[in-house]
TrEMBL record:
Short name of any one Pfam family annotated for the protein: Arm-DNA-bind_3
Name of the protein this chain belongs to: Tyrosine-type recombinase/integrase
DNA-binding as UniProt keyword: yes
Entry annotated with the keyword DNA-binding: yes
Highest taxon, organism lineage: Bacteria
Amino acid sequence: MATLTDVKARSITSESGILPHGGVTGLALHPSNTKGSGKWVLRFVSPITQKRRNAGLGSYPEVSIAQAAKAAIEMRSQIEQGIDPLEEKAKIAKVSKAPTFQEASKLLHAELLPSWKNDKHGQQWINTLEQYVFPIIGKLLLDQIQPRHIADTLRPIWLEIPETAGRVKQRIHAVMAWAWAHEYCPSNPVDVVQYLLPPQPSKSVRTKHQPAMPWADIPLFIKTHLRNGNKYDVTRPMLEFLILTAARSGEVREMTWSEVNFQEETWIVPAERMKAKLLHRVPLSKRAIEILRSQQGFHEELVFPSPRKQKELSDMVLTSFLRRVKAKSDTPGRFATAHGFRSSFRDWCSEQGYARDLAERSLAHTVQNKVEAAYHRTDLLEQRRSLLETWSHFCTSRNQQIV
């Protein structure tokens, strides 16, 4: 049989039927709906199952007669060696296919988990990816991810919550480094993402200028926005508790019932959960105790659990709430942040004439002067109790009729 020519192939129609290649057994051009186009098919008997099979080799004229013949000859060679070319192709595709970012993250998380000091650290690692990354690039294959995808993921939190953005970036980088090591991608796109994002303010600037609500506005804010939720609403009581205790968001979100001593009206935050890695005792005001009592019965371990997932709330919950209610701040164009209420408390302390040391200890700030620190043997618990009770009374001063 003569080998198929381009002249004959270009004239193929559904009426002319299938055109055998002539030079390779089983290879033929099957017509499509358009004249002069078709699909290459190699028919063969599988050396494994002994069943007849059809292998597609592409479309004509995109795949030329010579290219189709070359591919078919390679397949025929595999068949002679006892290899089913379709089965082999499926195996290669299964091995070489890059996983999605979400799949890779969970694989890496499982590998890293034994190296972390506690399970909570490992859970936080994957939680941040689930919250900020998976909804945007979780379903993308690793070899599809470009720097612009990373930038789009980080941009919503890049300036608003830079510390969290930095941690998220590090974790994305770890996943993509794992992908590069496994040859799923040619490079790590996180390495150049900084060129697609605006510069973040320095840490010193962020510390000094965290958008904070003016302390004089806090009583009205609590009355207007924090006392009108239903009994299953966790965000509002959690934010009010955070304000009254001048605590950090993470300390409140991760708070457990085992840390609360109702008899002594004290919250004891363990060292491993504190920024300075030192145990911190927080005196609880009467209103803070009321909030805790209202939370009893919702979770065996966590004081402020996620209502739906029954686990620790993310740090974005408070940020989203403050944006939604357009919480006033001292920074033009930005809303108040949860961390900013610590600044509000500190300003209030200064305005009311409280000693610097008392205010700083209420914020769990460490004494920077090493000589001075050596002589501090008390955490001034009772003095701080009086301070926080007065702060609580001020914050709720416009809420006496609110229940």
